[in-house]
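Readers of this paper often ask what the protein records in our data store actually look like. Below, we set out a record of this kind in full and without editing:
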Amino acid sequence: MYRKVKSILVREGIRQKELAAEIGVLPATVSGVLNGHHNSRHIKEFIARKLNMDFEKLWGRAA
């Protein structure tokens, strides 16, 4: 699932650094979420909105 999200971000030209700046967190935090090391619903919801995708469709129910 995380690889899928990362590939969508790359395809859309959205950089992790840009996401971090928009959310107001460190790039390492976004990276941690995208690599499955951190679980932040707030960041996952932001990414889903940014991609205009349904949260559960993007992250799954367990997110």
